[in-house]
Amino acid sequence: RKEVEQDPGPFNVPEGATVAFNCTYSNSASQSFFWYRQDCRKEPKLLMSVYSSGNEDGRFTAQLNRASQYISLLIRDSKLSDSATYLCVVRDSNYQLIWGAGTKLIIKP
Amino acid sequence: EPEVTQTPSHQVTQMGQEVILRCVPISNHLYFYWYRQILGQKVEFLVSFYNNEISEKSEIFDDQFSVERPDGSNFTLKIRSTKLEDSAMYFCASSLRDGENSPLHFGNGTRLTVT
User: Fold this and answer.
1) What tens-digit pLDDT sequence spans chain A (109 residues)?
2) Measuring CA to CA, which of A34, A59, A108, B71 is 20 to 30 A from B52?
3) Nearest-neighbour CA in chain A from B90: distance (Å)
């Protein structure tokens, strides 16, 4: 089983819609969680950290479910500029960052 | 906002040649990393560096690879004898801490093409 698993997509979503991705992780001792965004051939950029109580930043909401070992990212009122690959990153008990392969999102006008 | 800078943005080299990829981390950060991403594949950890020594390295980071922080600002990745399969984007990153909820800040990357 992969340590961090994501649906590769692509998710084709009309502009203005709400879209959600999940990411599962295998190590129950994982310490912390992040969503990064990566545009084609660019560096990953931190989108948001994921806190135990869930957190929101504008149109983006991240949730953590430790019992089921997944994190989620919800994007509301999606914009064309949200088109990117969304990378789930998990920091394990050894403080290593384990990267998912990413979920590709395409927002269509 | 402070950022991590990497040079060059694109490096083309012949198989067997040595390359040095350069990075200037954010000035008050203490932990430094190199990652690579082969086109179309996931980001892969290479090495982390703290207090002037390697703290972790992956299986990818074999004897062909080395890192240095020669002058307190630059952080370099050297590949001694490049192979075709070393062609990838190489990302440098830095963080203030190495603990929980300490996100990495990435540079723009160096695209290495080995011919």
Assistant:
1) 568 999 999 999 999 999 999 999 998 888 889 999 999 888 899 999 898 888 999 999 999 999 999 999 999 999 999 999 999 999 877 777 889 999 999 999 9
2) A34
3) 9
Between CA B10 and CA B1 the distance in angstroms is 24
Tell me which residue of A1, A11, A17, A3 sits closest to A97, measured CA to CA. Answer: A3
Residues in B closer than 8 angstroms to A95, CB to CB, are: 98-99
B91 contacts on A by Cβ (under 8 Å): 43-44
- Assigned token pair, A78: 């999606």
CA distances from A62 to A41, A51, A65, B89 (A): 25, 8, 10, 28
Greatest pairwise CA separation for chain A in angstroms? 43
Nearest chain A CA: its distance from B109 CA (Å): 6
- CA pair distance B77, B90, nearest whole angstrom: 9
pLDDT, one tens digit per residue, over B68-89 is: 998 878 999 999 999 999 999 9
Rounded to a whole number of angstroms, the distance between the first and last alpha carbons of chain A is: 37
What order do you get walking across the sheet with A4-6 strand by strand?
A4-6, A19-25, A70-75, A60-65, A55-57
Measure CA A82 to chain center.
13
Compute the distance between CA of residue B55 and CA of residue B51 in angstroms, rounded to an integer.
9
